[in-house]
Amino acid sequence: MLRVARLLAAKDLRIELRSRVVTNQVLPFAAIVMVMFAFALNSDAVVSRVAPGLVWLATLFSLLTLVQRSFAIESADGATDALRAAGVDPAGIYLGKAIALAVQLAVLEVVLLLSAVVLYRAQLRLSGVVLLVTTFVAATCGLALVGTLYGGLAAGVRGRETLLPLLLLPVVAPVLIGATRATEAALGTGGATVADGWPWVGLLAVFVALFGVGGTLAFGPLIEE
Amino acid sequence: MPTPKSPTPETSTPASAAPAGGASTGTAFTRAIGLATIIGMGALAVFGLFISPADVRQSDSVRILYIHVGTVWVAYVAFAVTALSSAAYLWKRTTSLTWDRFAGASAEIGVLFMALTLLAGSLWGRLSWGKFWVWDARVTSTAFMFITYIGYLAVRGLGGSHQQRARRSAVVALLAVLEIPLVHFSVKLWRGLHQDSSVADRTHVTLHGLMLFSLFVALVAFSLLYVWLLMHRQRVLAMQDALDDKGLDYALQQRRSEGDA
Question: What parts of the sequence cross the membrane (chain A) (predicted)?
């Protein structure tokens, strides 16, 4: 199973390295969303106060695009069916796709965080680095696991473009809440201390554990047609 | 809750579900339930609007709660039935689409009553708190539950074979069971200490005996309505499935017999 996961993740990342769809389309999209937030909120003080939330909101929007891309490369040539026909363990497919998605998300999040520092004047601080990194790792895992799960469901059926956000966004609400509050604590936004952040990382960890197990079990029945 | 008995789709399809005219989803049992529902709703109107007293603090707006509590009760029961039916469908990997239809019918009713709950709740909130919406954990996760099951119904409508629909939607329904408590818990954490408004309101109130009885009437009446709707809707879904399965065969057979005649 782990070997399958590693091979699939490597395959997805290789496709991305060669096609550069995420680099050339999703990253610029995320950047323009960050600029648009500033237009909508129209105040330097407000923008810097809500910067962590905006980073995660932009991540969620980009996640939708990334997930669609992740399954577009499978369904285009009926690759999922081929994998299933070859008797590949669905749990391996699931974890492999999730790992590749997590790597892409992580790159995106770093860019978004840096753009928040530049555009919104968010302040990074040394004491919050451990919390910040843990939060980003946990949230990225959670988003990748859930995104792959619902992406697999929506792939291969008509109307998936409109269905994915409806299914995915309510489920990732706890990640938005937890990651935003933990990031606020790490950056010290609004006077939050680093210690305030750890319970939120706990919430993210519970989310990752539940959907990691649930997703591994559910993915097989969802994609088998 | 009526229990589906038949193990196979063929036998679970009512005899009257054939595409011939005169098909009906009513039986003596559903007619009895329907009659009881009408009586229950009549009693609720009398108790809720006339016999039960106005609240000391909330005056007449308290009467909205009979609807609010009744509908939210049905919605929760409906979603629980959806989850249990979905688990039953997946459990043995039998081909019983009856469980799937119960899950689907129940979710439809749940979404409808959740919408009524949110509507009645926000009207009551406007009267009692001066605002339509509060970011209370219970209110917010109720809204999430509403959206989640709208998504579930969308998944049911995706098409494919009946078994595909059943498996897909059963998995989504079980994932919703995973999601809802997490959302509730995280919204609760998010609100921190601010989330007491509705809870405090409820714990301080000691219910007048007649109010409590009216509330009881509401729960009974709405439960009867749920059972009545569920049975009819489940049978309509069975007919739709039967029509999908047999409709074409039936039409071919008709044309052939026309040819023979």
Answer: 21-40, 46-67, 98-120, 126-150, 162-180, 200-223
